[in-house]
Amino acid sequence: MVRWRAWLALIKPRIIELLLISTVPAMVLAAGKWPGTGLVLATLVGGILTAGGANAINNVVDRDIDARMERT
Q: What's the pTM?
C-alpha cells in the first residue's frame, strides 16, 4: 500500500485533475458536438499519462533543489 501512496505523490493527481476538467469541454466546444467517446477516452488517457510522466520527471530533476528548500 505504501507504493501506491509514493506513486500518487510522484505523479501529482490533483494537478492532472485540473488538466482533465478543462479538456472535455474544450473538445466539445472545438468540435461543436460530442467528439466521440473513443476520442475523448483516448485524449484523457493520453493526458493522464503525459502529465503524470512530466510530473514524475520534474520531481526527479528538482529533488536536489527541493532538498535545500525549507518548505519541502
A: 0.76
